[in-house]
Amino acid sequence: MAISRRTVSRHLVALGLNRRRFIDPTGESNRVPQPIVARRPGHMVHVDVKKVGRIPDGGGWRVHGKGSAQAKAVASATKAGVRAGYVYLHSAVDGFSRLAYTEALDDERAVTAIGFMHRARVWFAAHGITHIQRIVTDNGSCYRAKDFAHVLHGARHQFITPYTPRHNGKVERYNRILAEEFLYARTWTSEAQRSEALKVWNIHFNYHRPHSAAAGQPPASRLAAGVTNVMASYS
């Protein structure tokens, strides 16, 4: 007699035996995590959005101090309903080379994510990644929109398990580097200043910054097409 897997799972949940370690004789988890490894450029492109606070003109408390007149003016404006808002950093990271493309955009709506993905494809193609086999995203509404399928162009759209960001770990790690080495590494006096600097930092990350996944070389060094559009100086 055949019993569906779902039926068995439902009964195990009812009995409190829904974890593999509960039915293992030693009580240990017998599941071995499998690494997510991209075999070639374009095999997997990891996409995500990071929301950060918008910097008010003239700078915030990080520039002037928490008790400064500027900080108090921003706080008063916030109480009055005038909020600085957020900036949404859309990023796409090639899982093989770790080559990364980032844009600072105004929202995370589906139409914005679709436009970003179109531009990211053009940017990756300029670096020799003309075919993307798989696009990995979380379960955000902008990625679940039916129109997002228009940017797949034959690529498989893989959603990670809900509440499991490690399944999209390559772009999550990139977001952490972005925060530690760029967003909060210095003080900014305006959002426009930070947005312009982001373009330069992106060049630094791809062409100059050593990466452990590339044996201490920049991500662009792992591309067969070689390094293109390199800035000699990013000061």
Write up this protein.
This protein is α/β, with parallel strands linked by helices. It has a single domain, classed as 2-Layer Sandwich (Nucleotidyltransferase, domain 5). It is built from 7 helices and 5 strands. Strands 3-2-1-4-5 form a 5-stranded mixed sheet, sandwiched between helices. A hairpin with a 5-residue loop joins strand 2 and strand 3. It starts with a helix and ends in a 28-residue tail after the last helix. The C terminus is likely disordered.
Please give the order of strands in the largest beta sheet: 3-2-1-4-5
CATH T-level topology: Nucleotidyltransferase, domain 5
- Named CATH architecture: 2-Layer Sandwich
> How far do the termini sit from each other?
71 Å
Low-confidence spans: pLDDT under 50, at least 5 residues? 230-235
Count of domains: 1
Percent strand:
5-15%
Order of helices and strands: HEHHEEHEHEHH
Taking all Cα atoms into account, the compactness measure Rg is: 22 Å
User: What is the percent of helical residues?
Assistant: 25-40%
Note the total helix count: 7
Q: Name the structural class.
A: alpha/beta
Q: Taking all residues together, what is the mean pLDDT?
A: 85
Number of strands: 5
The CATH H-level homologous superfamily: Ribonuclease H-like superfamily/Ribonuclease H
How many strands, what sense, and barrel or not for the largest sheet? Answer: 5 strands, mixed
- CATH class wording: Alpha Beta
Global geometry: globular
